[in-house]
Amino acid sequence: MIRRRSLLIAGASGLALPALAQSAWRPRQPIRLIATFPPGGLADVVARLVAPSIGAALGGTVVVENRPGAGGTIGADAAAKSAPDGQTLVISHASPNGIAPGIYPSLPYDPVNDFTHIAMLCDTANVLMVNKGSPTPTLTTFLEKARGPGARYGSSGIGSITHLMGEVLAREARAPKLDHVPYRGSAPAMQDLFAGHIESVFDPLTTNVAMIRDGSVTALAVSSAARVAAVPEVPTFAELGLPALTATTWIGISGPKGLPPAVAEAVQAAVLTTVGQPEIVAKMADLASYTPTTPLTGAAYTAMIAKFAADWTAVARGAGITVS
After folding, report:
1. pTM, 2 dp
2. N or C: where does the chain have the smaller number of CB atoms within 10 Å of the terminal CB?
3. Which CATH superfamily is domain 125-245 in?
């Protein structure tokens, strides 16, 4: 079962980790932190949770700017094309940095090489949910509907990780009538679920924990390798016979390509200080979002992104999933 994981400051890999007091770099104006999805989703919620502390550690201010659209690729592209001076950072994300390369034939940026990937913040399971009182309260009954009369699932947008996971579910479960309905973020998808316009939503677990606990929605399965401590009653896709649906949504902090080492080191130190604070760890655990046991920074974080992108590109191409 996934439980709260403590962040170990010692032993960080990748970029060197000097003391902030010894760093010469300080922001000359408020830092823009681009969240590549709308307010209310994982990227936005965690960005706003950590921004004040990161800003304070750097001796400045961090302002979150939402730049949603096209599965997070609009915001990611804006960040990639920003000046590499530390004044623009981005919430790197499994969708625009990991899923997009496999489904967009002409992505306007390289998800690995056009960024300075600084540190992973956390990851969370994805969850398939139906409304309270749904006639398909289990994954088995839901898939029966998706194989017969049909069912719709909402996601935070075309090209998002949850879009692709729904496509994989349809393929693996042989449910050809499971149709995707894209939204500009998680919040409007949930609104349509509650209104009965769609049968289900695939979404990161983060902002849905409270609704699962109070019974507003029914969680059919989570995409983590093991059950999640925050919602231990929810089975995993793997234990229900669908191991191909095992994948979490991760996010981190990145900057444009060519970020000076002194800037990257200062931001990395601020990030690690922030996610090591007990109150931040506790709030993330409440959101079923967990920091790595050992910090994933610099070259190690970059390598993780590259592998994730390669793995899911193979999945997307194997399934014939593309977005024009």
Report:
1. 0.85
2. C
3. Periplasmic binding protein-like II (3.40.190.10)
